[in-house]
Design a protein that fits this description.
The complex is a heterodimer. Helix content of chain A is 0%, strand content 49%. Chain A is mostly beta strands. In chain A, the strands form 2 sheets. In chain A, strands 2, 4, 5, 6, 9, 10 and 11 form a 7-stranded mixed β-sheet that branches. In chain A, strand 5 and strand 6 form a beta hairpin. Chain A is globular and about 40 Å long. Chain B is an all-beta fold. In chain B, the strands form 2 sheets. In chain B, strands 2, 4, 5, 9, 10 and 11 form a 6-stranded mixed β-sheet that branches. The chains are: A mainly beta, B mainly beta. At the A-B interface, strand 4, strand 5 and strand 10 of A face strand 5, strand 9 and strand 10 of B.
Chain lengths: 115, 112
């Protein structure tokens, strides 16, 4: 029973390039969440998606960041024109249902380094 | 906005000593979750507390939810080197589904 999968695990980009992070939720899970973790900090919510819908993007910067979860295929977090401050670990989590009592299952993360 | 404060930020213990991390919310919570993140790893769900005053145990780990549902604690008895990692509490934002608000985490190191 595969867990949440993320790729790539490590990504190096130069300033101004685009970063594309992928997340495949656990089988049967239709709710996906993206979190960002800066070095030695906690996790900060970015965006919550359900298939083909963005439910809550209140934690995502308005510029350069976008997310999608298409009907087919993984969820994508896209960062355009990356800057050094974007260097962080980006974690995707999934849950089978919506609701406040559902634990979230986290993927291994993508460590983004911007040179 | 809603905040979840966690202390201490770091805790260094000798193997065999006890460890406690505390979590406080500015608002009453519907529930609180605890996660563990090993160094270089990802958060792994440990437990969820729902009821006022609830206490749950997992082997050497004891989790408590305050009577007012505004605070929680995780206590580890007789730490082992396998307990090393960062422990996070997390709560649903505005007691609604989806977004989790995480505490800053407590990083535990255990000296053998």
């Amino acid at each position: 029973n595969a867990g949440v999968m993320q790729n790539p695990r490590h990504l190096v980009r130069r300033r101004g390039q685009e970063a594309r992070l992928r997340c495949s939720p656990m089988k049967g899970h239709s709710h996906v969440y993206w979190y960002r973790q800066l070095p030695e900090e906690g996790l900060k919510f970015m965006v919550y998606l359900q298939k083909e819908n963005i439910i809550d993007e209140s934690g995502m910067p308005k510029e350069r960041f976008s997310a999608e979860f298409p009907k087919e295929g993984p969820s994508i977090l896209r960062i355009q024109q990356v800057v050094r401050g974007d260097s962080a670990a980006y974690f995707c989590a999934s849950s089978p249902l919506a609701g406040i009592y559902n634990e979230q299952f986290f993927g291994p993360g993508t460590r983004l380094t911007v040179l | 906005g809603q905040q979840v404060m966690q202390i201490p930020q770091y805790q260094h213990v000798q193997e065999g000593e006890d460890f406690t991390t505390y979590c406080n919310s500015s608002t009453t919570l519907s529930n609180i979750q605890w996660y563990k993140q090993r160094p270089g790893g990802h958060p792994v769900f440990l437990i969820q507390l729902v009821k006022s005053g609830e206490v749950k145990k997992q082997k050497r780990l004891t989790f408590q939810f305050g009577e007012a549902k505004k605070n929680s604690s995780l206590h580890i008895t007789a730490t082992q080197t396998t307990d090393v990692g960062t422990y996070f509490c997390a709560a649903p934002h505005d007691n609604q589904g989806g977004k989790l608000i995480f505490g800053q985490g407590t990083e535990l190191s255990v000296k053998p």
